[in-house]
């Protein structure tokens, strides 16, 4: 397990390290055979200031996460990409990045967060489930013909049950 991770905003100097992490994965091999397309996509995330980088004592760019504030249904945050340097996987960095973004979103009063994960990416799906994401849809051929995507959602706040709301209203009018 890693001892200390700090998070920085991603800048263009991180581009090559981010590209290498995605390329060296089934995700990169299946979805991003066109190198230029992947470069363009990650560059866009860095320019928009939507990428955060995980730094450890050993590695200044050990992983990254890309999230957009209202990327899902124009109203809910969407985690667009998460990747960890192959040498640093299974050390908790992916979990740390996800929890960091979830905390940030809670501070911004977000109630839900969404992501998609390809059907072949069982390891990533297990990680999301462990952290409380539940499947809300399965979409065939979403990005590439032949691959289905699990759409996953996590509830970030405690939703008051109708009975709690009623007792709150009771207090308010008592
Ligand atoms: C998916 C990915 C981001 C996960 O990152 P990671 O840093 O390896 O993730 P973590 O270390 O936090 O957790 C993964 C594993 O470590 C173990 N682990 C780490 N921290 C743990 C903790 N605190 N408690 C229990 N288990 C822990 C888990 O058991 C998990 O094992 P499993 O995958 O066998 O279930 C990484 O594998 C990756 O970059 N893959 C390629 C890109 C990709 O597919 N991204 C996802 C796109 S949807």
UniProtKB/TrEMBL annotation:
<keyword id="KW-0808">Transferase</keyword>
<dbReference type="InterPro" id="IPR000182">
    <property type="entry name" value="GNAT_dom"/>
</dbReference>
<dbReference type="InterPro" id="IPR016181">
    <property type="entry name" value="Acyl_CoA_acyltransferase"/>
</dbReference>
<protein>
    <submittedName>
        <fullName>N-acetyltransferase, GNAT family</fullName>
    </submittedName>
</protein>
<keyword id="KW-0012">Acyltransferase</keyword>
<feature type="domain" description="N-acetyltransferase">
    <location>
        <begin position="5"/>
        <end position="157"/>
    </location>
</feature>
<dbReference type="Pfam" id="PF00583">
    <property type="entry name" value="Acetyltransf_1"/>
</dbReference>
<dbReference type="InterPro" id="IPR050680">
    <property type="entry name" value="YpeA/RimI_acetyltransf"/>
</dbReference>
<dbReference type="GO" id="GO:0016747">
    <property type="term" value="F:acyltransferase activity, transferring groups other than amino-acyl groups"/>
</dbReference>
């Amino acid at each position: 397990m890693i001892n200390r991770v700090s998070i920085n905003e991603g800048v263009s100097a991180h581009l090559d390290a981010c590209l290498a992490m995605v390329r060296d994965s089934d995700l990169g091999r299946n979805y991003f055979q066109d190198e230029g397309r992947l470069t363009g996509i990650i560059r866009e995330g860095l320019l928009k200031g939507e990428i955060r980088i995980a730094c450890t004592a050993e590695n200044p760019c050990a992983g990254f996460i890309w999230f957009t504030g209202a990327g899902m249904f124009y109203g809910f945050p969407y985690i667009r990409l998460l990747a960890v340097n192959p040498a640093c996987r299974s050390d908790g960095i992916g979990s740390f990045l996800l929890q960091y973004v979830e905390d940030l979103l809670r501070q911004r009063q977000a109630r839900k967060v969404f992501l998609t994960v390809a059907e072949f990416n069982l390891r990533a799906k297990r990680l999301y489930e462990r952290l409380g994401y539940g499947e809300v849809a399965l979409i065939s051929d979403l990005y590439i013909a032949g691959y289905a995507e699990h759409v996953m959602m996590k509830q970030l706040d405690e939703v008051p049950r109708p009975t709690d709301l009623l007792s709150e209203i009771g207090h308010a009018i008592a």
